[in-house]
Amino acid sequence: MAVVKECAGSTPDDRLIWSVIEQLNGELAEGDKLFKRR
């Protein structure tokens, strides 16, 4: 993931896209934790 972050420019669009990706990754990680608890 770090490579993708470096490749992406620092334009507002890229920042917006990256923030969305990070949000999705956070939600996936939370879901993974809940799933492993069962």
Describe this structure in words.
The structure is a single chain. The chain is built from 2 helices and no strands. With 38 residues, the chain is mostly helical. It has one domain (2-37).
Relevant terms:
38 residues; mainly alpha; 2 helices; 84% helix; 0% strand; rod-shaped
Q: Total domains, how many?
A: 1
Number of strands: 0
The end-to-end distance, rounded to whole angstroms, is: 28 Å
Q: What's the number of helices?
A: 2
Largest sheet: none
Compute the CA-based radius of gyration. 13 Å
Q: Determine the oligomeric state from the structure.
A: single chain
How much of the sequence is in beta strands? under 5%
Principal-axes shape call: rod-shaped
Which residues sit in consecutive blocks of at least 5 with pLDDT less than 50?
A: none
Helix content: over 70%
What would the average pLDDT be, to the nearest integer? 78
The structural class is mainly alpha
Order of helices and strands: HH
How do you describe this structure in short?
This protein is mainly alpha-helical and 38 residues long. It is 84% helix and 0% strand.
Task: Map the helices and strands.
Layout lengths: L1 H6 L4 H26 L1
